[in-house]
Amino acid sequence: MKIVNLNFFKNKNKSTQEIIEGCRLGDTSCQKILFKRYAPLIMTVCRRYEHPDFGASDLLQETFILVFKNIKQYDVNKGSIEPWIKRIAVNTALKVIRKRKLNFIDIEEYNIQLEDVTEEPFRGGDDISEEVILKLIRELPDGYRTIFNLFIVEGMSHKEIAEQLNISVQTSKSQLSKAKKILRKKLKEQRSTKGGRNFKNYNF
Amino acid sequence: MEKNIFEHIGDKLNQYESLVDVEAEWDSIVEKQNKRKRKRGFFWITFLGSLLLAGVAYLLISPSPNPSQPMGNTPTEKSKAEVYEESASPTTLQKQQQITSEETEKEEIIPTFSPTTSTSVKQGSRSNQRLSNSLSAKPFLIEEDLTLKETADRRPSDQRAFQTKLSEFGPLPSLLLPISLDEALPEQSPVLKTTYSSPDLDLPASRPSLELFVHAGLAISRQKLTAKSIASEDYRTSRADSEQPLETYQYTAGINYYFNRRSYLSFGGHYNIGFDKIIHQYEVPKVYYFENVLLIRRTHSNGETEEVYGDTSIVGTQAIIDQQFNKYTSINLSISFGHYLLRRSRFGIALNGGLFQNISFQATGKIQSAAVDGGALVAIEGYKKSYGLGLLAGIDFDYKVSRSIVLSFRPSASYGLFSATKKSNVLNANFKQYGLSLGLKYRW
Hints:
The complex is a heterodimer of chains A (204) and B (444). With 204 residues, chain A is an all-alpha fold. Chain A contains nine helices and no strands. The radius of gyration of chain A is 19 Å and the shape is globular. With 444 residues, chain B is an alpha+beta fold.
């Protein structure tokens, strides 16, 4: 596996604009440079949503195909292209999820009470491995994982999530609550079985 | 403000960059983009081709506003139009034009003629009398001028030829209408009695006609498949590299649209089905487990085989005989142009050639066996689908057995131009297929 050189550009802003312009004109070399630059970041997004039927690699490829196809719609004046590409990746993942028609259980149907959990503030060093986090997130059920990603990582509100997934706000809240509960439990298990020093500064 | 664990997780994941095999992913992206371009190209070709077909069909099928269309003729025998032309002298024509021109200002209705059994000429008005006199004075047909074989039998096309010629003189007075062919012509011309029983292929078709055809036959295609290719784990092997020719059964049905008596446009659907078997023997120290077993063929060490339905495991592991059975199915939709080089009363030879759009399916059943006794065999079903375009050409040897039915023998050749997907099989891109078929044509 190759490790991408993150210091590819010296004058990053100017080069990125030229690259985007080249992509607009259909220049394959510019497209490749853009891909090389943002593929690692977008791959992380894809790995959070991946499903065995539609892996992270396929999601990454579909994302960039859409990026190259629609790059003319990107407005340079609105800021960095990175959030735009991320948004395409998330939308592509949601499209796959909608096709699979996940069964999000409506909280109102089952009269499930939300747990009132006070989140403990995080203290201590930055010692939770990203790979561990990704692994734990992938182990979540599809519905929980989706809502967790959208709320926690993407920063969407429950109302926006409900609109995207065609569910109720209460269902979104319920699924998130359950996802957090499961993740908390898994992080505890990680601490107890694989060396708790990574999580010693955190109270579960 | 201090963050909780999940906010911290969110921040970390938003900045984390995973390891990526950039070159491999980029190659996949390029391949996908090219594949979609090919599919788009195939779609547009099919769409535009269909539009073209629809346009051509509409132009050919829609009724012509001018009835005086030229008709196709044999090189050796004259059509009625030509005979009429030769028979009617310029003087007669001028006289008739003079007669009718006086009436043209009043009436614009053009007569229609229909066959009746009566042969007498109606006596009507003066203009009618003039017309009938002019017709009897110089008949449109002189018997000794006829070069047609069968003079007693005529088809309705003769009436229309007469009508065509008559309409050239301009509109006739309304008092002459309606007037039948037999009524208009003198009794001295019994040759024009319309019995319409001729089965003659040679008589010109005065209007476009349709012909339904069905063919069945055998075709052979050549590709190459080496034995080592089936030793791989992917048992759904394409037959693209077979060393053995594949025999397929061909069934064709379609419609020929004749826009003159020799040339036609043909729309056909073709169904091809073929089977083959590839045998490869090798040593494998392994046990295989499979699901969905359909058929088990047990091969004993003495070479005898038996077929049973069984379970999914192999016991023996000494010598393995791989037998791969493939079933190929192909559906082609074709459009082609045909032209009769030779057309006699009973025989005809036509050349045709055109394009076809192909959808192919390859179903693979792999049967694997152990050479020792008691070894169980398993089967795997595979399936591939591909699309493509190709060229086809053929020669029709026709023999007319009755008025509307023709027996047809057709040698043909097909060539696959390209495949819209990379999965090519013997019935798709770059294949060559030669066939012989026998069929029937029905014309109405």
